[in-house]
TrEMBL record:
It comes from Thauera propionica. GO terms for cellular component: plasma membrane. It catalyses: ATP + protein L-histidine = ADP + protein N-phospho-L-histidine. The keyword Cell wall biogenesis/degradation does not apply. InterPro entries: 2C_sensor_his_kinase (IPR050980), HAMP_dom (IPR003660), HATPase_C_sf (IPR036890), HATPase_dom (IPR003594), His_kinase_dom (IPR005467), HisK_dim/P_dom (IPR003661), HisK_dim/P_sf (IPR036097), RisS_PPD (IPR032408). This is histidine kinase. It is a multi-pass membrane protein. The chain crosses the membrane at residues 164-185.
Length: 465
């Protein structure tokens, strides 16, 4: 049963519209079938009585005509009945070859009613010798079993001939009902799809246009509540961005004075360098707060040279003496926001240097992988356990073993992940062969990427550019 349930679930449509439509269609088909059976059950006895009365009348009139007709005129009478009324009459004999009627309920009801009125001796057949029809036996004298005749009525007088018409009308009613069911369900599915689209926009950090608060009362109430929630989230996000930006900006001025005072204090050089490094780390944290507080970038996407951008971002690190290897093609054009991608790449490099150390090699590559433009930063640090990857995308999050290290605010990867979602891309955090972390920025390639700009695998094809 479980296997059957899984099979049925796998073949069912996934959308509410089609699931509800199929359910309503099934209910309509079952209802139509049930009503047709109910109609037949109660209509068949009435029809059987009407047809039986017609058959009895024909038999009685035929018997009366035969009894009252002159013996020399009976043959003419039989010929006239066959020609004018389609009624054939033949003498019954014991050696007659007959085929019984079918055992359907309408015919049973008919024969029972005819036999009740004509007598228990009445016989029925669907074929007499080689002639097909509705055959009924009768006697001129009920007590004379040797003076028996067969009378044949055309089958179309007995059976229902408008079956096709009933089927056409039934099918038309079913189609109309299904069309109405589709329209009803679509009125529910359309606002739900709009709600899902708007929810995805809210989830990606964007402010969606308000939903229409119309339609059925339940849908309108949900739309109103969602619009209110989206508005509250937008105001909260704006307030958070304003607070972060204001606090971060106000902190940089006293930090600049503090650094100037330390450099002019005359303290030993190693102490000055340590304090200046702490101030620079605080300044980087403030920069991350500013980046996080900006929210969704307002810069419009445009075609930029990713290869040139990677070289520009990594060059200052090379001048600082960082062991960094860069492997990029000569040109790699893709639609993106240049400032946001610069910030994301710089955050990845800073994160790698913070956890791997500046004395370990760092590899930055760019290229095309599976129709996406990829920028990879690979280090030889401790890496990120697979079960911690999703948590590390959240703001103010650090690895457990890095909690004792107070450097950083845990915003770097959260900022990168937000930037990638704003580009309809994503950030991959993968383990590196031999130890370390591979942080990959994946951007939609668009239609302008050169096909030869293939992404090197794990930096093994890296060449200094």
């Amino acid at each position: 049963m479980r296997a059957l349930g899984r099979f049925v679930t796998a073949w069912l449509p996934r959308t509410l519209l089609w699931q509800t439509f199929l359910l309503v269609a099934l209910l309509l088909i079952l209802s139509l079938g049930a009503w047709s059976q109910i109609f037949r059950y109660f209509q068949e006895p009435a029809r059987a009585r009407d047809v039986a009365q017609m058959v009895v009348s024909v038999v009685n009139l035929t018997r009366t005509a035969l009894i009252n007709a002159h013996a020399e005129r009976r043959i003419d009478l039989l010929i006239d009945l066959a020609a004018l009324e389609g009624i054939r009459i033949y003498p019954a004999e014991a050696s007659d070859e007959i085929l019984p009627l079918r055992g359907s309920r309408p015919l049973r009801l008919l024969t029972d009613e005819v036999r009740r009125q004509l007598g228990e001796h009445t016989r029925f057949a669907s074929r007499w010798k080689a002639l097909d029809g509705f055959w009924v036996s009768f006697r001129l004298d009920p007590d004379d079993q040797f003076d028996e005749y067969w009378v044949m009525l055309p089958s179309e007088r007995i059976e229902t001939t408008d079956t096709l018409g009933w089927l056409v009308w039934g099918f038309g009613a079913l189609v109309a009902a299904l069309l109405g069911a589709y329209l009803i369900v679509s009125r529910i599915g359309k606002p739900l799809r709009a709600l899902a689209r708007t929810a995805r926009l809210v989830g990606s950090g964007q402010t969606p246009p308000p939903l229409e608060e119309s339609g059925p009362q339940e849908i309108a109430v949900v739309a109103h509540a969602f619009n209110q929630m989206a508005g509250d989230l937008a105001r909260t996000d704006a307030d958070r961005a304003l607070i972060l930006a204001g606090v971060s900006h106000d902190l940089r001025t006293p930090l600049a004075r503090l650094r100037l005072g330390i450099e002019m204090s005359g303290a030993p050089e190693d102490e000055v360098s340590a304090m200046v490094a702490d101030i620079e780390e605080m300044d980087r944290i403030i920069g991350q707060f500013l980046d996080f507080g900006r929210g969704t970038p307002q810069e419009p996407p445009q075609a930029i040279d990713i290869a040139s951008l990677v070289r520009d971002v990594t060059e200052p690190y090379r001048l600082r003496g960082v062991d960094i290897t860069v492997a990029v093609p000569d040109s790699l054009v893709a639609p993106a926001r240049a400032l946001s991608i610069r910030r994301a790449l710089a955050n990845l490099i800073d994160n790698a240097l913070r956890y791997a150390g500046e004395d370990k090699p760092l590899t930055v590559t760019a290229g095309v992988m599976e129709s996406e433009v990829c920028i990879e930063v690979a280090d030889r640090g401790p890496g990120i356990p697979e079960n911690e990857v999703e948590r590390m995308r959240h703001p103010f999050t650090r690895l457990e073993k890095a909690r004792s290290n107070t450097k950083g605010a845990g915003l770097g990867l959260a900022i990168v992940d937000r930037v990638m979602r704003a580009h309809q891309g994503h950030l991959d955090l993968l383990p590196r062969e031999g130890g370390g972390l591979r942080a990959i920025l994946r951007l939609p390639a668009g239609g302008s990427v050169a096909s030869h700009a293939r992404m090197p695998e794990d930096g093994r094809e890296a060449n200094d550019k």
